[in-house]
From TrEMBL:
This is Helicase C-terminal domain-containing protein. Keywords: Coiled coil. It comes from Microbispora corallina. It comes from the Bacteria. InterPro entries: Helicase_C-like, P-loop_NTPase. Residues 292-319 form a coiled coil. Gene3D superfamilies: P-loop containing nucleotide triphosphate hydrolases.
């Protein structure tokens, strides 16, 4: 037995423990009413349910059953096996469980006896078990009016009101099995037909799950268990014997290996996408003609992708610089992996090759937005990194020796530190390779561009109310440590220190062997240092785009800096200001500045903008961002003559074409095109190994919070038994006891995931009182958590304490952790209510089971319609998740958003277009700006046209365009009104508006529409 198998068995055992606790299987006596304890397998009396409204009835149902499609037309004869227990309150404080009741009821339907069935035998059986007065019946309803034979078979608790008290009148541990009825599967009509997916379900559970056993019997289940299987990325034609995708080989001589990959993809497609093959599937899988058409269209998309890869290969063959950059990138990736892996997965390399045509041709290819789409956990980040490092080398080799190569944005407020570390590792490796290979230009470095809650915008000379950072505070630098290991040597002996001499907050490594040799590590975490040094790759939050309207030093994100300070270590300079008289951003610097010529400046502009988690750019955030994307593009295009290329990643393909069109005004392309069936493509296929077990839970009669707390309790108690009676547990689970320690390590921490911060906080609070497990160390990972708390928690999760009792046992988390948190030790999750979007469900649950089999409880808020719907088709929902992803609502023509973004266009144009043209330079006050406007004769209408263009609003969009004209007219009127009293240009907006500080400043919850 190997570890994966041990884990799989442990997950099965653990789930059994939780379900048994939910039903009360192993309990014989209780001190409290069982109706307030058990959440599975119970059945309320119908009279109680009848008094409740529909929603409440669902919360404590009085019936369970199945909806089936009999194979033959009626009449039908079959048997129903029923099992149950009851609880009796024998004295004031004690409840006792009765013996189990088992009854088999014969059903002839329709017949002279219309039913219900079995009432008498069931009542007798309960009486014999010592629970006189309880009764239940089997009800059968013919619903063949739906078009085909269809029966609903239910067990209903018919116990009357008077006989026993509440709690005693519920049935528990209820089982129901249909024997001897041949059925046909249902086809899930709510999903579109697709040749890729199987839409069949054997039966539909009513208030429960249903499973079909090998003998065809249908049996209800208390939870719905759906297993996702672990994918593999190399097999058959892509196995290592057939395809050498090692970094080392590609670093030496890339062309033949890339050619092999392209050839293998083509050969595979000639088999799986051939017309013969599709026709064969059409006949054997019973496709409709439309499905064959759909499959043929998909086959031509595949053909197009093969052609792209061929063009990528050709680019590599023809362009010497590209080939060298590609080889250096591979050498760097080998170095960055620190021996953890030594090769690409085929899809990762495929994606990089698919972008190569853009490098050599700034025509059509350049303008496509390329989206990488791959299941989470597939290695998307490394793919990104390969591309970035390649771009960095290519820039250097073709003469762009300084400036930002790529600006990579994440849509959340906080950026995952793990992600940052991986970026730093790759770029530091690239820097070492650059030194070895004597590639000219600035050192390759990373900028961490996030925002004041994590890292400083600026380190002031003296603390102020506005910026309380104190350079004399010795503990200050440590608060802003972003890296936990040295990206050069992997040592954990990394620290931060403020250097007064050139005013930098440095990351340093203490390891004497480190290639850094005591010099700063190649990462900048303070905004101002990012402006000063323009690191090769900048990663950060999307919100930072708002600075383009506020900060003249953002120039390096669309163009180049004004000059270079002659004092070593001061870096690039920007517009002159009172506080920075020469344009140098180091306080009090008076050193002369070496001007950078206009033509050299253009070369600094970024080649790429990257957008991670594209699907999160929706609603108002998407609307605002679409204007900022246009603004960035238009500034760069105006100053350099070109726009950057945009690369994105997304969790879903639903509607990405429209989304890309709205956000970037470009056409979109996706890689890879999905394979011909859901379980297999050239790039990956399912194995028989468990990836994640999803368990849908319908809390009956108790609150979701109670079930969550009980689940944590059972999970923690059960896992802890590995400490005290490991041998026993392993025996029960069928596991070799030698794995006990590893299992304790891998399953000792559970995650409780809430959809809102409020849910998460409530869960955390109740854990203190409702989970009788001690010690229980709980940490919270939400957007509310402080930066250093998150860093500490992640580092504890990755490197757990020696003793189990010192470790983190439970993590309560919100969507903040659904991106980029990658900890192998997180393998159990409880999700409190189905997340609002399917994309979030997919991403959040993908945080567990990344390397080892995971277990996910989805506790449904069953009173909500959406949760009830998801429960009813939980299997397809989990297996075909991407098909359930809702189209992303996004628009660029919201006038409400435009009102907020127009000031940004005005201000950005003042900083980057007008100020550089102004003979006296500075346009920082209303007086200076008025003088400039009057001198140059720039008119309000003309400027309105420019602003509209910068925001991507065309004249044909009459209403929106008119709004901009109006806003500009008012702005110009105030500018000319010397009595208006504004001192700074950003005070000239209506209603005290300012350019947005964050892209989320839109008042929350107001819907955004195409008005
Ligand atoms: Zn080091
Ligand atoms: Zn200086």
């Amino acid at each position: 037995m190997d570890l994966p198998e041990a884990c799989e068995r442990f997950v099965a055992w653990l789930d059994n423990e939780v379900v048994a606790a939910g039903r009360g299987d192993n309990v014989m006596t209780l001190d409290a009413n069982p109706a307030s304890i058990f959440w599975l397998g119970r059945l309320a009396p119908e009279v109680d349910a009848a008094n409740a409204v529909r929603r409440e009835r669902r919360l404590d149902p009085c019936a369970v059953g199945v909806r089936v499609r009999p194979k033959e037309e009626g009449s039908w004869s079959f048997h129903v096996r029923i099992g149950a227990v009851a609880w009796s309150k024998l004295d004031a404080e004690k409840w006792h469980k009765t013996n189990p009741v088992e009854v088999v009821v014969r059903v002839d339907f329709p017949s002279s006896d219309p039913g219900p069935f079995g009432e008498t035998v069931i009542a007798e059986a309960f009486e014999q078990a010592g629970a006189a007065g309880l009764s239940a019946q089997v009800r059968v309803t013919d619903e063949s009016w739906r078009g085909a034979p269809e029966l609903v078979i239910e067990l209903v608790n018919t116990t009357p009101e008077s006989v026993r008290q509440r709690g005693e009148r519920h049935l528990y541990e209820v089982e129901l099995e249909i024997l001897g009825l041949e059925t046909k599967p249902f086809v899930l009509e709510s999903l579109p037909d697709s040749f890729r997916y199987d839409r069949r379900m054997p039966a539909i559970g009513i208030n429960c799950g249903v499973s079909q056993r090998a003998n065809g019997h249908l049996r209800i289940t208390d939870t719905i268990v759906v297993d996702r299987l672990r994918p593999e990325y190399t097999f058959d034609g892509t196995s290592p014997e057939n395809l050498d995708l090692k970094f080392a080989s590609l670093g030496t001589d890339p062309v033949p290996h890339v050619a092999d990959l392209v050839r293998a993809y083509q050969a595979w497609g000639e088999l799986h996408w051939s017309d013969d093959h599709l026709e064969h599937r059409y006949r054997s899988e019973g496709w409709k003609p439309e499905m064959l058409e759909q499959a043929r269209r998909a086959a031509s998309e595949y053909q197009e992708e093969v052609r792209r890869l061929h063009r990528g290969l050709q680019a590599l063959e023809k362009d010497v610089q590209l080939r060298r950059a590609f080889a250096l990138m591979n050498t760097a990736m080998a170095r960055a992996s620190h021996g953890r892996y030594d090769r690409w997965r085929p899809f990762q390399l495929g994606f990089v090759v698919s972008i190569l045509p853009s490098f050599v041709d700034d025509g059509l290819d350049w303008h496509f937005v390329e989206t990488v789409w791959f299941a989470t956990g597939g290695g998307k980040t490394e793919t990104y990194l390969g591309l970035l490092v390649l771009a960095a080398f290519y820039d250097r080799l073709r003469g762009k020796l300084a400036g930002i190569t790529a600006w990579s944005r994440f849509p959340l407020r906080m950026l995952s530190l793990q992600q940052t570390q991986r970026f730093a590792d790759a770029l530091a490796a690239a820097e070492l390779v650059r030194r070895d290979a004597k590639v000219p230009g600035d050192p390759i470095a990373l900028g961490y561009f996030v925002g004041a809650r994590s890292t400083p915008n600026d380190i002031p000379k003296e603390p102020t109310d506005f910026n309380p950072i104190d350079v004399d505070d010795d503990s200050m630098p440590a608060r802003y440590q972003v890296l936990t290991t040295c990206p050069f040597c992997g040592s954990e002996d990394v620290y931060t220190k403020f250097h007064r001499g050139n005013w930098t907050l440095r990351h340093l490594c203490r390891n004497e062997e480190c290639p850094s040799q005591g010099q700063p590590l190649p990462i900048y975490v303070v905004d101002k240092e990012i402006y000063r040094f323009l690191p090769t790759v900048v990663i950060g939050t999307l919100d930072k785009a708002s600075l383009i309207a506020m900060q003249a030093s953002m120039r390096g994100f669309v163009h180049g800096p004004a000059g270079l300070c002659t004092r070593p270590g001061h870096g690039y300079t920007y517009a002159k200001r009172g506080s920075q008289p020469t344009g140098c951003l180091v306080p009090d610097c008076q050193a002369p500045v070496e001007t950078i010529s206009e033509s050299d400046r253009a070369r600094f502009a970024p080649s790429f903008r990257l957008q991670d988690e594209l699907h999160l750019l929706r609603d108002s955030l998407g609307a605002v961002d679409s204007h900022y994307e246009s603004l960035l593009d238009s500034l760069q295009e105006q100053m350099t003559g070109a726009r950057p290329k945009i690369i994105a990643s997304s969790a879903t393909l639903t509607g990405y074409e429209r989304q890309v069109d709205v956000l970037y005004e470009r056409e979109g392309r996706v890689f890879p095109v999905p394979g011909p069936s859901a379980g297999e493509s050239f790039w990956s296929r399912e194995t028989d190994k468990l990836l994640r077990r999803y368990v849908a839970v319908w809390p009956r009669g108790v609150t979701l919070e109670w079930v969550s707390d009980r689940t944590t309790t059972i999970v923690q108690q059960s896992v802890r038994r590995l400490l005290t009676e490991g041998h026993h547990v392993c025996q029960a689970a069928g596991i070799d006891p030698k794995f006990a320690d590893q299992l304790l390590n891998l399953y000792g921490t559970n995650v409780v995931y809430g959809n809102t911060v409020r849910d998460v906080e409530a869960a955390r609070r109740s854990m203190g009182t409702q989970v009788p497990v001690s010690p229980l160390n709980v940490v919270s990972l939400t957007g509310q958590a402080e930066f250093d708390e998150v860093r500490e928690a992640l580092s504890r999760l990755q490197r757990p304490e020696e003793k189990f009792e010192d470790r983190i046992h439970t993590v309560t988390a919100s969507s903040m952790m659904s991106h980029g948190v990658d900890v192998d030790r997180l393998n159990i999750m409880t999700v409190l209510g189905v997340p609002l979007t399917t994309a979030e469900f997919i991403q959040a649950t993908a945080r567990v089971g990344r390397t080892h089999p995971g277990l996910v409880y989805v506790i449904h808020k069953i009173g909500r319609e959406r949760d009830a719907t998801v429960f009813s088709h939980f299997g397809p929902f989990v297996r075909q998740g991407d098909r359930f992803v809702e189209p992303i609502p996004v628009t660029r023509s919201s006038r409400r958003v435009l009102e907020l973004t127009t000031p940004a266009a005005i201000e950005a144009r003042r900083l980057f277009v007008h100020e550089p043209k102004s003979p006296g330079q500075r346009l920082t006050t209303v007086d200076l700006l008025r003088k400039y406007i009057n001198m140059t004769g720039v008119g309000s209408e003309e400027e309105a046209g420019e602003c509209a263009a910068a925001l991507g609003i065309s004249v044909s969009n009459h209403l929106a365009f008119k709004d901009i004209v109006k806003q500009l007219a008012a702005y110009f009127a105030r500018l000319q009104d010397t009595g208006f009293g504004a001192r700074f240009p950003n005070e000239l907006f209506e209603r005290d508006r300012r350019p947005m500080l964050s892209l989320r400043d839109v008042e929350a919850q107001v819907p955004v529409s195409d008005d």
